[in-house]
Design a protein that fits this description.
The chain has 319 residues and is of the alpha/beta class. It contains nine helices and 14 strands. The chain has two domains: 163 residues, Rossmann fold (3-Layer(aba) Sandwich); 139 residues, Rossmann fold (3-Layer(aba) Sandwich), CATH 3.40.50. A hairpin with a 5-residue loop joins strand 9 and strand 10. The protein is globular.
Length: 319
């Protein structure tokens, strides 16, 4: 037996996961004490059950992280057999190494907190960097949004598509997309001038007359995407698309996107999407992907097949 519970970060996605696994969300009360502290009470029997708690660490990240930790602790103290933290978007991941003196490694800190709270396993999607999997001292199932994204992209009339990594750190992701789409590959070199300012300086690869598909795991201010789009336009790219797993969009991002040559932003529902202000944003659900992973974890089955799109399926869709 297993049950799926959800915090307040992304109720719609949690309900989609629950529909896929064929059961309603578990009953849980999440309230606030008068001073703002979080109160959690599980309203049903979970002793000896396999528990999945769905919560993205998105805006407001501090509130949602604390909700997750307290829900895990409540399930542990209610004698759940196994607790899996289902974290579609793992926040606090930008600081995953010491790249300057006297700074924290917040991704490791959050991983420690989740383990200390009592989680036995983590299910997440498109970490900001691969090494975050190693920050946990419990098993981690790390999924990719690429199969969902590619399924959508192969249905579009793309002309000689070329997959573009808007920064060197995303090259591995871009290679995976290029292989799935059977397209070319390009790389943009960037220099960050501040927390919200990015300069794209060099392009490696041929984009002239071709549809460019920029892929990234995360965007907040759209600085990297719009700077790369300007460079792609200068080099003759035809239509420019942006494909991003986690769209943690700040208000300034919408203004930048509207002023850019980006034709469409394709994202997942790993976090709630803000009002696009008329800019074309396509939201693809990962509820079925995560739901299938939940079922396989509960049955102690492999989740490897969820990592990829089969070449035969791509060919069939194109035909």
């Amino acid at each position: 037996m297993f049950r799926v519970f959800a915090g307040n970060s992304n109720r719609a996605l949690a309900e989609g996961i629950a529909r896929y696994v064929g059961q309603p969300l578990g009953e849980i009360e999440i309230a606030r004490f008068p001073d703002g502290e979080i109160f959690v009470k599980i309203l049903e029997h979970v002793r000896g059950l396999d528990i999945f708690i769905v919560q993205s660490i998105c805006h407001p990240p501090n509130e949602n992280l604390m909700e997750l930790l307290i829900m895990i602790d409540a399930a542990k103290r209610a004698s759940a057999e196994r607790i899996t933290a289902v974290i579609p978007f793992f926040g606090y991941a930008r600081q995953d190494r010491k790249d300057q003196p006297s700074v924290p490694i917040t991704a490791k800190l959050v991983a420690n907190l989740i383990v200390a709270a009592g989680a036995n396993r983590v299910l997440s999607m498109d970490f900001h960097s691969q090494q975050i999997q190693g920050f946990f001292d419990i098993p981690v199932d790390h999924l990719y949004a690429a199969p969902v994204m590619v399924e959508y992209l192969i249905g579009k009339p793309l002309k000689e598509p070329v997959v573009v990594s808007p920064d060197p750190g995303g090259l591995k992701m871009a290679v995976a997309y290029a292989e799935m789409l059977g397209g070319g590959l390009a790389l943009v070199a960037k220099q960050r001038k501040g927390p919200t300012e990015v300069e794209a300086s060099h392009l490696v690869g041929e984009v002239n007359g071709r549809d460019a598909i920029m892929v990234d795991d995360l965007t907040t201010t759209a600085g990297t995407l719009t700077a790369a789009a300007r460079l792609l336009e200068e080099h003759g790219a035809r239509d420019i698309y942006a494909v991003v797993s986690h769209a943690v969009i700040a208000p300034m991002a919408i203004d930048r996107l509207k002023q850019s040559r980006i034709k469409e932003l394709v994202v997942t529902d790993s976090v709630p999407i803000v009002d696009s202000g008329g800019f074309p944003i396509t939201v693809l659900s990962v509820a079925d992907l995560l739901g299938e992973a939940v079922l396989r974890i509960h049955r102690n089955e492999s989740v490897t097949d969820l990592f990829k799109v089969r070449a035969s399926e791509i060919g069939a869709r194109r035909g």
